[in-house]
Each structure stands twice: as structure tokens, then as C-alpha cells.
DNA sequence: TGCTCCCGCCAGCAG
DNA sequence: CTGCTGGCGGGAGCA
């Protein structure tokens, strides 16, 4: 079977997809799906599908193309005359019926792949009726074709937090083809994403990907707007009514001075120059508007739970539609669509609210919260919220079990905010959630970007696997507590303390040597978070700061990660045995080469505003400042921060110093493994931590990765270490024995695995292995991500990844492209199609 | 049986 | 006028 698979792929593309299947995780098959889809689609797609212009696709990052599916399609169309393709063509031509079926198969391809890669590949080769029948049998379930799943695949294609310099253009055609769905479906996704500013329309059939940078702001704005519009009251009103009677009297719902004008208000908010429209205009009913309103409901709700019927009623009321059952039904359908996308974004999760009359479908907000008050940056918010969510999930689980029989459907107003969970259906819980299958690919893409940006020297192999696909948490896009972590080359190491520490090691000062930007991160500035933040990102504006730190700590607690790092004989100050890293605030790390630092510093400061995809910009501020813990105490939370220059989208990884339960985990064999809770932080977030710059740990091997001992004290092989520092990151063995095994044993498998980062969850463990043979002679042949456009190991890398992989900072910055880009964004003037949510909101 | 929500028709509107 | 967008609701999968 495998042979067939490979053959087929070969026919279609030069790439070596074969490996993709090997790693099928079922939960993380997005990449493969895309690939396969192409295969599928190509034959059948003489479709209106205008030849996809690759250049359009990644206008700004041509280097990436090797991966874009579009190319494949084109290619295929251009040279379809492979035996298989030929046969398909003939069959298709022979019978419309068959063609139709073929088409359907194509649509399902992604899902099927997910299900069973091998089977899939087999089928592809088969052309006979039997094959067709087989396809029918293989037909994915409705669930598998859900918009949510599709959305995940969509999201998997782009980094959650793209670099400022990274400008990604989304071609609806290409995406549709890649994902094997009709464009119509993509519109649904894009519309919702646009409502949250994750994307924006650049031109016809073209969208720009912004990522989640401005999400916090957008949400803040929506929350504010929701409050202004008294959505909470409306919700309470409807909910109360629900309690009393099921009657749905739309006419009566108007209240609180809420008026149609408010609808307009939303529109205006979104698009200042938006022409006034009638309440019933088409655009008023747009999915974007609905999405915004839907989100607003969550944001203003104390319980953070919104039932679809209530949301639908409110929406109908606002739209002034005739309140008939049909409208209601339609509204609910749309809400499901929106909810699916939001769920994929890990902003909400499905739950059920039990009432007198039975269970009611509802969704619970699990995204960032309190941004309005905290004012912390988006990253922090997300981290914090995620941590909270994580905890809550646990609570929910227990609660659900304990209260399974209870019925609770209190009006939002009556609920205690502190007690978030109303009775939730057991099935809604993590692990068992129907959405479990939804894997967050964001991580995956982020890693790609990250890897690609590793310092010049740094080559990183990232291997990660979703521990438990079932974990809803894994859905969290980025900065998840459990994200497979990562990090890497050319970085600087710092010991960060959960709280402010006066006593900074002298060394920290020494660090000041770095350019001003980086120096800011150091001690002196530590306390003054705001200033630091500013410097770090010029754009950022100081805002409320707060819980970031606190939250971060929580996150950290929530999601311990297993880290396996190349051990490096340390000699200096504090050695960095795993333990040390773990608990000692004093632990010192290798001093990274200056040059290595510089990149890091630049990365931090360099988060330049991305003119492009930044609708509202990353102005979001991140100001973690509050340090609640007493500075003097041994920090409960001590972190080892590995700063990434450019990688990881500028995020830094924090390893908890205090928790190193599984310190050395020989699990993977010869690698020293260190289980360290860690989290990824955006550069700005670091400002909240006092930084202790640790003296370089003399490591003989530092420059020679190969020399790393297989076991023993763990040292982070970092950037400074030299180009050789290749890290392999994967899930901890403990989490997923299987994964661990793979990581340590079969290089081949590793590659593919590395690509499946999507599901990474809070529980994910990251294993960093030195790639060099030195690692205990580990056959660790991880995928090496290179900055260079040239794919190192195409086989192991999936196309989508490549997109980001091969992007080089330099290429991204192409002036011409930028210009073009700018123009494009401007062209987006079409008021009707644009929804502008001031991400600058609070301002 | 009711909840979900896929699917694709077809109208609005931009280019 | 073309074709991109996306509202809309029938109807089928699923629990």
C-alpha cells in the first residue's frame, strides 16, 4: 500500500509525500490533507478555477512557494498525463456521474486522509468502479466534513502570530483547492476570521493573513461595543424569558432603549466610512456582523456562556427581521457556522446548558478574557486565559461529573462570575468533547515560522506530536501552556524570576553590552515593564498591565513540558544541571555568544510593526507588570528563558525552574531529558520578569554539538553554541510513549511527526534533542529547518510548512512586494466587503 | 426526533 | 457582463 501511495504521489508531485502518511496522527493530518487534496482536485478541477497564480498567493514571500499547493495544481494540470491521471480523466469524461463522484471524493480527500492515510493513498491509485465504491464507503462522516475541521485546516496553513515582516496573502481559490472544498466554504471561514481581524480582504479573492496579534484588541473593542449596546441586558432578558417560557416573541424583545441604530453602530464601528445601511440590508446579515455580535455576547456575558437560541433571538431582533421560525432557524444555522470557526480558534467551546425543557446547545467562551481591564497584551491575555481555561477545564470535568445530574441555566445575571461553569454536559468536557478532533494547527505553523527563523546557524528539528488529540486544550492556537516548545539556536539565556528580583546577577549588567534594545530586557528595566515593552516593540503602547505575569505563572504550572536538551558540560557559575535549571534561581546558563545575542535582541525589538497585515496593529500592548509575589522570596516560579531571535515569531520560551519533577528523563534513550514546565512568551511579556542574565556556562562542547553527552546534566544547547545546535522537539515520552519512541528511534518517522504540531497542548511535552549524532549517537535525524529556501528534507516536510519555512526575513522584506501589498490593502476599499474592527479600540 | 450543519442555488454587487 | 461573495434554507447525517 505504501508503495502505491508513494507512486501516486510521485506522479503528482515531485515532493515526497509518502512520509506524510507515515505520521498520520489522525488528529493532525491537515498537511497531508492538503497534499492529497491537490491530487484529488487536480483532475477534477478544470473547474472555473482559474489557474491559480502562485505569485498572488504569496506575493510577499515568493521563497515559500515550493510548498504551495497551487503550484501542484498547476503542475498537475499542466502535466496530467501520468497513467493515473490519465485514467481519471478518461473516467471522468466517460461519465458525469463518475465525475461527480470523483469530485466528491476529492472533497473528502482531506478527511479521508486524516482517517486513514494508507487507505487513502490506495484508493487514489485505484480507478475502477471498485475504487469508486471504496470511496463511497470511505466517505467521511458529516462530522468529518464540518466547518470546524475545515477551519482548522485553514488555520493550520498560517502562523498564529506571523512575524511582522511576514505577509501572507490568502488566495481563496488556492485554499479551496488545497483543502478540497468549494470556495463557498472558505468564505464562511474567512468571514468569521475577518470579523476578528485575523484576516482582511486585500483584493478580490485575496485575503491577507494577520494572525492573532490584534485579536485581544479586537475583542476588547467588541466587548466595549457589546457593553455599550447592552448586550448583557438583552441576554439576561432572553435568558430569563427562556426560563419562564419557551415562547419566543420576537416583537417583545426590544428593550432597554436598544435600537436599530445600534446595529448601525456596530457597522460604523467596523467601518467608519461605511455607508449607512438599512437594518435589513444584506450586509447587516453578513456573517461578519453576526460573528461580531455573537462574540460580543460572550464578552459581555458574565457566565461566558451563550445559548444559540438566545443569540439567534437577539440577532433577529437587531436585524428587524420578521420574527418567524424560519428566520430563527436560519439564524441558528449561521450561528453554528460561526461557532465552528470560533471553536477552531479556541475562543469558544461547545457546551450544553440544561434546562427544564432539556438541554440547549450553547457555547462557552474560553478565549481571552478581561482584556478590557487587564490591558495586558494579547499574548499575556491569551496565556493567562488559557491557563485559566485549563484549570477550569479540569474543574469542569470534575464538576460535570459531580453535577451531571444537576440542571442549571441561570440567567447570566444571576450567575456568579466566579463560578463559571453552569452545568455542562459531560460530553462537552475536554477529552470527551466532540470537538476533540479539532486539532490546533496553529502551533504547527508557528513552529514552522519559528524554525525558519532560527538564527543563521540554528537549524532546528522540530518534532512534536499531539499528545492527546482529544484534549480540547490542544485547540489553543498559540502560546498554550503545553505547546510543544521549542526553542533554539542563537538565543540568549536568561534566568527569569517569576517576581521581581532586586538582586540581579552582575552578569546581567554585562549583558547590557547588547544593543540597547536587548539590554532593556535585562535587569535594570525589568521592573519598569512599560518602558521595556515600549522599547521592545515600538508600537506597543502601554496600557493596563497586570496579570500577565501572574497568568504566565499559572500557565506554566498548568502545562509542564518535558524538555530534553543536549547536555553540555557546564563549568561556570552555576551549572545547569536540569535540577539547577529547575529550581535554582541562581542557575546560570551558557553565555551566548554576543553575536547570537544580537539577533535575539533584534528580534525582540524588531517586532516591528508590520505594516501589512496589521490592520489594527500589534499595538496591543503587553504589559505584564504586576508582580505579586514578593521579590525576595525564592521565586516559586523561576524560569529559564530562552529567547528566540526571530524564531518562534519572537516568542521566548520559559522553562520553569521550580518544577522539574522529571528532571532527567532517560526516556528517550540517550538523551538527557528534563521535564520542565515551560511556556512560550512573546518578547514583550518578558518585560515583566526580572531578568537575570546568567554567565556563560562554559561548555566545551558548546560549539560542538556532537560532543554533547548523551545523558547527564542538561544544558541548553543554544544559539551561542553554534550552528550545530539542532534541537529536536517533541512531545514528552511520558505523555505519549509512542511519540517518545519515535523521536528517539526512527528518524524517518520523526520528520513527519515533527510536522504534526497542531494538537500540541498544554500537556504537550517538548523534547529537545540535539540533532547532532553526538546525542548519544541518536539517529536523531530530525527535520532540519533551514532558512534557506531550499528544502532540506522535503520528504519530511509538508508543503504547508514549507511555506513558512523557506521564508527568509530578507525576502519578506522585499520593498517592492511591500509596496504592492500596501496597495492591495488599500484597494480593499470596498466598504461592503470590509469589516473594520478597530483593533485599536480601547484607544 | 431534534439537533447539526453540509451543500449548493442564486441574488447582490464589484470590477 | 462576468464572476466573486455570501445569504439562505432544504434536507441529510447523527445522537
UniProtKB/TrEMBL annotation:
GO biological process: positive regulation of macromolecule metabolic process; positive regulation of nucleobase-containing compound metabolic process; sprouting angiogenesis
Disordered, as annotated region: 402-423, 504-634, 772-843
Domain E2F/DP family winged-helix DNA-binding: 142-211, 282-367
Compartmental location: Nucleus
Gene3D superfamilies: Winged helix-like DNA-binding domain superfamily/Winged helix DNA-binding domain
Any one Gene Ontology molecular-function term assigned to this protein's record: DNA-binding transcription factor activity, RNA polymerase II-specific
GO cellular component: RNA polymerase II transcription regulator complex
Family membership: Belongs to the E2F/DP family.
UniProt-recorded name of the protein: Transcription factor E2F7
Organism of this sequence: Equus asinus
Protein encoded by which gene: E2F7
Amino acid at each position: 500500500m505504501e508503495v502505491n501511495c508513494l507512486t501516486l504521489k510521485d506522479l503528482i508531485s515531485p515532493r515526497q509525500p509518502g512520509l506524510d502518511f507515515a505520521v498520520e496522527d489522525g488528529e493532525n493530518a491537515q498537511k497531508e490533507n492538503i497534499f492529497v487534496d491537490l491530487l484529488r482536485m487536480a483532475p477534477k478541477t478544470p473547474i472555473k478555477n482559474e489557474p491559480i497564480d502562485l505569485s498572488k498567493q504569496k506575493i510577499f514571500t515568493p521563497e515559500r512557494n515550493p510548498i504551495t499547493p497551487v503550484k501542484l495544481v498547476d503542475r498537475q494540470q499542466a502535466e496530467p498525463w501520468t497513467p493515473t491521471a490519465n485514467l481519471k480523466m478518461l473516467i471522468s469524461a466517460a461519465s458525469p456521474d463518475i465525475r461527480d463522484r470523483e469530485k466528491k471524493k476529492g472533497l473528502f480527500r482531506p478527511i479521508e486522509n486524516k482517517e486513514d492515510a494508507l487507505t487513502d493513498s490506495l484508493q487514489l491509485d485505484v480507478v475502477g468502479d471498485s475504487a469508486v465504491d471504496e470511496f463511497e464507503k470511505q466517505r467521511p462522516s458529516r462530522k468529518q466534513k464540518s466547518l470546524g475541521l475545515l477551519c482548522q485546516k485553514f488555520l493550520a496553513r498560517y502562523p498564529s502570530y506571523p512575524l511582522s515582516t511576514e505577509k501572507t496573502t490568502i488566495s481563496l481559490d488556492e485554499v479551496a483547492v488545497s483543502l478540497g472544498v468549494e470556495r463557498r466554504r472558505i468564505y464562511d471561514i474567512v468571514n468569521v476570521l475577518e470579523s476578528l481581524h485575523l484576516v482582511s480582504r486585500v483584493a478580490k479573492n485575496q485575503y491577507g493573513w494577520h494572525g492573532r496579534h490584534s485579536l485581544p484588541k479586537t475583542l476588547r473593542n467588541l466587548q466595549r461595543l457589546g457593553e455599550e449596546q447592552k448586550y448583557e441586558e438583552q441576554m439576561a432578558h432572553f435568558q430569563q424569558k427562556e426560563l419562564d417560557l419557551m415562547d419566543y416573541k420576537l416583537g417583545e424583545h426590544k428593550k432597554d432603549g436598544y435600537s436599530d441604530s445600534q446595529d448601525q453602530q456596530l457597522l460604523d464601528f467596523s467601518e467608519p466610512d461605511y455607508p449607512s445601511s438599512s437594518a435589513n440590508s444584506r450586509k447587516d446579515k453578513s456573517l461578519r456582523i453576526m460573528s461580531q455580535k455573537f462574540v460580543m455576547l460572550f464578552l459581555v456575558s458574565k457566565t461566558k456562556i451563550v445559548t444559540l437560541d438566545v443569540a439567534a433571538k437577539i440577532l433577529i431582533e437587531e436585524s428587524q427581521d420578521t420574527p418567524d421560525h424560519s428566520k430563527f432557524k436560519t439564524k441558528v444555522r449561521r450561528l453554528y457556522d460561526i461557532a465552528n470557526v470560533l471553536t477552531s480558534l479556541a475562543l469558544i467551546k461547545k457546551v450544553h446548558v440544561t434546562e427544564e425543557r432539556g438541554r440547549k446547545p450553547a457555547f462557552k467562551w474560553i478565549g481571552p478574557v478581561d482584556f478590557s481591564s487587564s490591558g495586558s497584551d494579547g499574548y499575556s491575555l491569551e496565556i493567562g486565559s488559557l491557563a485559566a481555561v485549563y484549570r477550569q477545564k479540569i474543574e469542569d470535568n470534575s464538576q460535570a461529573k459531580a453535577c451531571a445530574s444537576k440542571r442549571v441555566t441561570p440567567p447570566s445575571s444571576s450567575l456568579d462570575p466566579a463560578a463559571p461553569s453552569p452545568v455542562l454536559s459531560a460530553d462537552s468536557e475536554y477529552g470527551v468533547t466532540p470537538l476533540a478532533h479539532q486539532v490546533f494547527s496553529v502551533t504547527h505553523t508557528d513552529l514552522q515560522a519559528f524554525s525558519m527563523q532560527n538564527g543563521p546557524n540554528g537549524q532546528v528539528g522540530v518534532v512534536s506530536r499531539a499528545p492527546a488529540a482529544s484534549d480540547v486544550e490542544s485547540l489553543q492556537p498559540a502560546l498554550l501552556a503545553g505547546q510543544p516548545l521549542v526553542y533554539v539556536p542563537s538565543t540568549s539565556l536568561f534566568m527569569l524570576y517569576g517576581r521581581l528580583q532586586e538582586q540581579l546577577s552582575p552578569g546581567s549588567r554585562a549583558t547590557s553590552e547588547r544593543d540597547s534594545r536587548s539590554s532593556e530586557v535585562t535587569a535594570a528595566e525589568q521592573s519598569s515593564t512599560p518602558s521595556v515593552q515600549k522599547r521592545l516593540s515600538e508600537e506597543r503602547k502601554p496600557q493596563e498591565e497586570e496579570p500577565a505575569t501572574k497568568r504566565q505563572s499559572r500557565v506554566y504550572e498548568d502545562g509542564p513540558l518535558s524538555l530534553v536538551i543536549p547536555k553540555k558540560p557546564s563549568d561556570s557559575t552555576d551549572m545547569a544541571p536540569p535540577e539547577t535549571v529547575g529550581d535554582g534561581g541562581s542557575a546560570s546558563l551558557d553565555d551566548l555568544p554576543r553575536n547570537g545575542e544580537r539577533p535575539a535582541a533584534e528580534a525582540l525589538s524588531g517586532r516591528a510593526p508590520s505594516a501589512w497585515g496589521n490592520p489594527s496593529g500589534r499595538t496591543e500592548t503587553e504589559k505584564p507588570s504586576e508582580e505579586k509575589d514578593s521579590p525576595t522570596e525564592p521565586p516559586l516560579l523561576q524560569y529559564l528563558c530562552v529567547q528566540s531571535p526571530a524564531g518562534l515569531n519572537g516568542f521566548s520560551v520559559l522553562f520553569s525552574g521550580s518544577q522539574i519533577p522529571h528532571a532527567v528523563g532517560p526516556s528517550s534513550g540517550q538523551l538527557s531529558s528534563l521535564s520542565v514546565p515551560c511556556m512560550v512568551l512573546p518578547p514583550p511579556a518578558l518585560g515583566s520578569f526580572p531578568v537575570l542574565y546568567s554567565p556563560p556556562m562554559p561548555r566545551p562542547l558548546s560549539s560542538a554539538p556532537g560532543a554533547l553527552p548523551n545523558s547527564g546534566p542538561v544544558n541548553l544547547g543554544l544559539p551561542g553554541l553554534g550552528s550545530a545546535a539542532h534541537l529536536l522537539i517533541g512531545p514528552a515520552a511520558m505523555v505519549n510513549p509512542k511519540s517518545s519512541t519515535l523521536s528517539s528511534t526512527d528518524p524517518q518517522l520523526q520528520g513527519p511527526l515533527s510536522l504534526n504540531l497542531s494538537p500540541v497542548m498544554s500537556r504537550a511535552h517538548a523534547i529537545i534533542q540535539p540533532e547532532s549524532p553526538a546525542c548519544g549517537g541518536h539517529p536523531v535525524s530530525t527535520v532540519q529547518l533551514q532558512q534557506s529556501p531550499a528544502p532540506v528534507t522535503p520528504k519530511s516536510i509538508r508543503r504547508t510548512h514549507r511555506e513558512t519555512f523557506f521564508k527568509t526575513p530578507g525576502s519578506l522584506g522585499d520593498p517592492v512586494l511591500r509596496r504592492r501589498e500596501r496597495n492591495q490593502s488599500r484597494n480593499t476599499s470596498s466598504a461592503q466587503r470590509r469589516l473594520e474592527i478597530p483593533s485599536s479600540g480601547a484607544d
